[in-house]
């Protein structure tokens, strides 16, 4: 009896989030698409929204959420520390730059693009570029992972860090990469094609509609994360995270499982990279630096490694603080108290403290995942056991 | 009797032997390529070669001093102390303020030399104190936690120190006067600046002193014991906490000295200095074999040399690829020989 009901329960609890998510999404969309331009809206609310959560900030935080969900698969599920995630962001971004702009002006390829057919350059449909970017990133994830994944955890972290430095530098110096211009160097690739949605092409300022698209992409990532976690692969990831040796003894193929974590995580990086390129309407090499990798890591750690909702919360909070919240708060504080403090410079302090304090006092994050919580406090549990057994012996 | 001679010495499982072969052939190929590259450059521009080699070695000495901190800490608690590079950066800023503002020396005269000497002591104490504080406040609590936790904490600590540096130094690089004698001496056509000589005169004794401390004193013995087995050394009466704190102090002092030497030889400080140099220094530590003191020194000098040659030679990638070259070395080393040049491969204990 129990056996037959279990799958339907699982399926139900697996889909329950969709309703709540859609409601929040639609509310957000209505607010930003219809309420904000509405002339009857009181000026106070309008100003408040623009100061605390302007349309561009919410879109940007959604891009961060997509990335953080990808990193969560690598760090939270499989337990592999990746300090160079920004590399995938960069590759995804340049995929958008290559396939959706006039960068290759000497070519003229148009495949369901959103610009007139005679425009120079490669113009492939946004939705296809998303997939292309995702798969190219996944390929790079496998290429990076294949030789390095047999290393111990901290060495692996370093190798990823190395790649996270090398790949952005390739793009940064890409104006003359063995004689070819692959990235326009520091000038970046400006003007990425608008997003075609059938009736309309979404340019850089259609925040409301783009919000809907980014919400959809986030939902796809949430769906992928939740589904994979429950499946065979996800359980194998968790097993590796908890004890690699035990997992391999139980017949989990270590290399293949780790590589697939890398590939899926990188795929999300590609999605986010393409989305971000359309969000800022360009690709700029100097944006891809080590700090971004650490920001994403801090998001995953703050929210709760391994828990999708925790990661979304963490990513939302930190990207908001980093992008808009801190400056808005600083403005308010400086106006109120007549001070002149540069609050934006406190991001380093904030992110550093988030990482340290979370690790010291709440290692499992704001919305913890029960399994991970047990794992992270394993050492302390052993101590408690030891001390209690000592007491027993004493008595 | 014949049976005894038949028994071969066990060299490893077939997989291990294959790996050793791959490692060896890979190493030979890489060394061949490197020597071809160096030879081509040497023939093309011999004087320039020696010149950039010397300046590369000078940077290499600073890398070596920082790398020692990484290697000491990794050797004892197996933690990649990401904050170490930023400690170096703070030390560089500390020495600039110490010499220029607090003592007020800005020229190479007896007062300046005195300031330099006192600063060397002060900055070493500064580095040691900060490093011990970091260990005490953060890493010690996490010693029993899974590996990921202290590593992430170290990254956070690096951000924290970065913030202090940003507030202390300002967001733009700052230029400082140097107090050690500048000038050049010539050996034939080759110019060697006095600063380079001074750097080696101060750096090498430090390295020797550290080596003596670790290999010949009781405290050093305690360090080596703790790195092998913490529980057993506790049973032998070693205060593990104190020993680990001492290791952090030693590493911090070396980073402090490196900070002073860097500030005096380059003359500029900036808040994001620590990240790049720290990573390069860590690469040196890995290259030489992490946990091995002389490995860190050799690795640092080698990386400095390679970087110097890459930046200054006619047939090379040039300065804008400097980072990529260093990190490529790191990745190649980690993939083919994780134990490093001087390290011994150890099988993972379960």
Please, could you describe this protein's structure?
The complex is a heterodimer of chains A (395) and B (350). Chain A has 395 residues and is mostly helical. Chain A has a single domain (53-368), classed as ABC transporter involved in vitamin B12 uptake, BtuC (Orthogonal Bundle). Chain A is built from 15 helices and seven strands. Chain A has helices at residues 2-35, 43-52, 55-77, 86-99, 126-148, 153-172, 207-230, 232-242, 244-249, 254-280, 290-303, 308-337, 347-361, 370-376, 378-394, and strands at 100-101, 108-111, 121-124, 189-190, 195-196, 201-202, 282-283. In chain A, β5 and β6 (201-202) form a beta hairpin. The longest helix of chain A is centred in the first third of the chain and has 34 residues, at 2-35. By secondary structure, chain B is mainly α. Chain B has a domain at 62-275. Helices cover 74% and strands 3% of the residues of chain B. Chain B has a two-stranded antiparallel sheet. In chain B, a hairpin with a 2-residue loop joins β2 (184-187) and β3 (190-193). The longest helix of chain B has 32 residues, at 46-77. Chain B is globular and about 70 Å long. Chain B starts with a helix and ends in a 14-residue tail after the last helix. The relative contact order of chain B is 0.18. The mean pLDDT of chain B is 85. The interface between A and B is large, with 48 and 45 residues.
Keywords:
heterodimer, A: 395 residues, mainly alpha, ABC transporter involved in vitamin B12 uptake, BtuC, 3-stranded mixed sheet, two-stranded antiparallel ribbon, 15 helices, 70% helix, disordered N terminus, disordered C terminus, B: 350 residues, two-stranded antiparallel sheet, 13 helices, 4 strands, 3% strand, globular
